[in-house]
Design goal:
Helix content is 65%, strand content 2%. It has 392 residues and is mostly helical.
Amino acid sequence: MLKSFYGKLIDKPAYLATILLLVVIGVTAQCILLGNQADAHGMYYAYYKNYLIFKHSFFHLVKNQNLYLLYTDFDLDYFKYSPSFAVLMAPMSVMPDFLGLLCWNLLNVFVLFFGIYQLPQIYNKQKLFVVAFVLIELITSLQNSQSNGLMAGLIVLAFAMCEKKKIAMATLCIVLSVFIKIFGLVGFALFLLYPNKIKAILYTIGWTIVLVLLPLLVNTPAQLYQQYQNWLVLLRDDYSVSQGISVGGILYTWFGISAKQFVFVVGVVLFCLPLLRFRLYKEPRFQLSLLASILIWMVIFNHKAESPTFVIAVAGLAIWYIAQPATLVNKILIVFAFLLTVLSATDIFPAAIRKNYVIPYDLKALPCVFIWCKLIIDMVFYIPETPQIKAV
């Protein structure tokens, strides 16, 4: 019976989609039913406070209020996305909280699910592995009402659209990701692998213009210009306040070294090294490896990476694993990542170890850093052997 169910999950993605739908409904209900939670200062805020930030951003934009001020009536954090994102939240903003949050969570889950199942280079068994491996981190992101599932989904979907020569859709996905979180810019590296680069540039310019000007539906040009100025100020100030659960965070918590710009530059240089292998651009394994590298890089070199952000990196880990030979080293690394990156944020993991070691020393990022370094080395020295990609 269990084998039959597993077979259906592989052969009929609708079964898996139904399970994910039930998960989304359950997590959304949990967030609503948990009601208000007290913060460290004894003030109470809705458990789904991040969603409320997104929701209220639309109303702030319509009223020409500064999007990037601290509105403590519903949270103690800032809105950090673009004015265009605030406009795109309009449909959910006018819904009751449960329905709006449900739609938001569905968007985060099913853009990623759709992106994974649009990948043309891998089998359904491998796609099921990716979804299963990502699921716990995805739930963590949903419980925090974050946009990280959507970010991962847009990057994966952009890759799938590139493979299918749908350049307009691919560029739209990447541009949208940038207007959600600025580090989506690294996703443009995907277009180096494919022809029609001029077409991709033109579509990128076109979609960028559309999204930049989208808030003019509710703002004057002068008001919109001021909102973009406010956004740039916030991004500039935000850069200096944290290291994130990242390479920079590990260096700071382990050795007291604070070198954000140096770490970022080194990360960029290492990321670009495999791109010198021009002759491998059409190799399926190389292409999937670059996708994995992008997803992991977006987190481990992100100065604002937090636990819910890791659904992006974990998606990269899963794609890395299915794109590589099933060596003992790779198996050990993926298990290491599952235990320390995925499970460390759950109640399955010993609380004492999590509180005393994992969180203070940013250990959640460690397997991702190891795997990304190995991935870069493998890409630099990769010798094509076969167009086949192993099954999980």
